[in-house]
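re the bet — no i am not wrong, look at it urself. input seq straight from the record:
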Amino acid sequence: MLDVSSARVTHCVVHRVGNRLREEGCEFSQQEVRGTAELHGTLLRHYLTPLAKSGEDFEFYHESDISLNSVKQFSTRILVDVGNFLNVSQNIAKHLYSISTHPSIAEGEFIVILFQDVRIDGASHAALGLYKIEQRETFLDIERSNDSINLIELNGIPVTSIQKGALIVGGDVGVFVKESGSQQTKYWAELFLKARPRQTRKSTSKLAAEFVKQVCSRIDVEAGMSLRRDLVDIFSANETINYRDVEEVSERYLDRNEVSRLTQQLEDHAGFSALSESTVDSALLSRQARSVLRQYPLGDGIGLTIANPKARLDKCSVSKTKNGYRAIIDIELGE
């Protein structure tokens, strides 16, 4: 995890980037933000800390040559020589505009912040934060005049959540990405940053959870209940497992070729290799697949959810009746 306790803001600029499809253009600031200590504190709390603590671990890539990745090259120029900050930030904004061609991409502010003294294992690094603001919020303020106190309505940039953000840490440490709200488009990570999840235990567990979801959607109700019970037993008995273990359990209920095809699809989408040989943290996978493992479909649009983490479905018999379904369920409660 990144240590940002001693980090500070040294440079900040705001540009405005529109939708290229609608020919909204860009507005480039010719000067950096004249930040106060209070503003820098807000940026550190709400724009740096969330990315450092909960940003997804990504890495830059390019189909043919990594040197052609625009954001990687631009960010490196700033991290190596801060004298390039203003001009290169405009180039990054131009690149963002060039890929903003989806009709759902909204015009908004593009904020570039240079942080210093971000620490990893005690070593100090510079880090470049990139943020796109596409939605504003209404808030109230107080206005005093003579003998009255009035409420006034203002419209501004929210700081409670990062709408689209990326933190690029110098020294090729990594890229940390965070998005919130409706994901109508995938332009931020896939097209603008051209970054993909780094192959770690966390990202592998996330893919394994997606694999479990895909398998469960392809088998019938009875097989799905058995598969869920088998997976819960394996996760409970082992701190770590191999992705291949999840495949082998799934092959009891789904054709082996279909299992291999699903894994190949996940590898191709994430850019991972040798997924079957990867190690997965059982507790992490169990949490990421909780919505699938704790929900047991009983019939068309009808299911059972077990919220108690110590409980497991032992047996379940479902039969159709004239007006619906009859289910006999045995639930085991652990210690």
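see?? The mean pLDDT is 89. told u. also Residues 13 and 32 are 5 Å apart (CA to CA). so pay up
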